[in-house]
Amino acid sequence: MTGQVTATGRIDIDFPFRVDRRGRTADVGYDGHIRDLIELVLFTSPGERVMRPDFGCGLLDLVFEPNSPELAATLQLSIHAQLERWLGDVIQVEAVVVESNDNVLRVRVAHVVRATGDRRTETFEGRAA
Questions:
Q1: In degrees to the nearest 10, what's the CA dihedral of 76, 34, 44, 42?
Q2: E strand or H helix at 69, and its extent?
Q3: What's the chain's Rg over C-alpha atoms?
Q4: What Å distances lie between residue 116 and 30, 34, 111, 120, CA to CA?
Q5: pLDDT band at 8; cut points 50, 70, 90
Q6: Does the predicted model carry a pTM greater than 0.70?
Q7: For residues 70 and 104, what is the distance between their CA atoms, to the nearest angstrom?
Q8: pLDDT tens digit string along 105-123?
Q9: Domains of the chain, start order
């Protein structure tokens, strides 16, 4: 979804959808929107979206998998590929680091926002219920 451009910059609808303290649809700036998009790709399971069955990485499905260097390497390649595939026109992925500790899966994504040239590093955590 394309955001609205205001005098202070671009504004997008926040994800996940929620109502803010004013009772309106919550919004977020462009950097927050990019973070939301990355999070959406990481935590959506393939098959979850009817019209895009191959969308997503499905990281939450892997929280209880045995921790190993092979799993981390596989996930890093898979995440990098999915981010490039679905968000390649928005960001350039520079690095993906995956850490698994007990029931927490932590993913660090270093990227460049194509529209602004800003380098950012975002950390995402998935916890098993």
A1: 20
A2: helix 69-87
A3: 16
A4: 10, 12, 12, 11
A5: very low
A6: yes
A7: 17
A8: 789 999 999 988 999 999 9
A9: 4-127 (3.10.450.40)
